[in-house]
Amino acid sequence: MPAGFQELSAGRGFVGRLETGSDLVAEIERFCLEHGVVAAQVTVIGALRRAAYAYYEQHDHRYLELSSDTHHEIVGFTGNVSLRDDKPFLHAHATFADAFGATVGGHLLRGCEVFAAEVMIRELSGVSLVRTFDEETGLALW
Ligand code: ZN
Questions:
Q1: What is the pLDDT of residues 30-78, one digit of tens each?
Q2: Percent of the chain scoring above 70 in pLDDT
């Protein structure tokens, strides 16, 4: 196995719907905190009233924050949960489509307001996923 990789096994699974008006990122992190989920794969399908996301500027080591109050479908969402500062932290990237099918997307931020969201959380057992600061990228990585 390559250095830095760990073998995982399937843990618990959770599936449910978030309330309209809730914050997509904050609600998933809160759920994981309440249920002791410290490592997981997360997928979401649904729609947002407001999208908040970012692009990481690799030269400057900073996020360029973007947002849109246009209603969007969540057409792609991939994310994971790991520990950052001893708390479950959701790292997710998503693609959003507007009424014309045009898409935007990026690194999800707090501030995504849910219209409807079906969430699936698959806990990962037997692994330790902890984020620490990485000098080369400027990011908190495993
Ligand atoms: Zn990211």
A1: 999 999 999 999 999 999 999 999 999 999 999 999 999 999 999 999 9
A2: 100
Which whole number is the average pLDDT over 123-135?
A: 96
Euclidean distance between CA atoms 5 and 128, whole angstroms: 10
CA of 20 to the centre of ligand 1 (A): 25
User: Cα separation of 38 and 22, whole Å?
Assistant: 22
Specify the pLDDT at position 127.
Answer: 94
For the record, the structure tokens of 104 come out as 């935007």
142 burial level (CB within 10 Å; 0-12, 13-18, 19+):
middle
CA 63 – ligand 1 centroid, Å: 9
For 18-141, which CATH class?
Answer: alpha beta
Q: Distance between CA atoms of 71 and 137, rounded to whole angstroms?
A: 33
- Expressed in angstroms and rounded, the spacing between residue 67 Cα and the centre of ligand 1 is 15
Q: How much distance in Å is there from the Cα of 142 to the middle of ligand 1?
A: 12
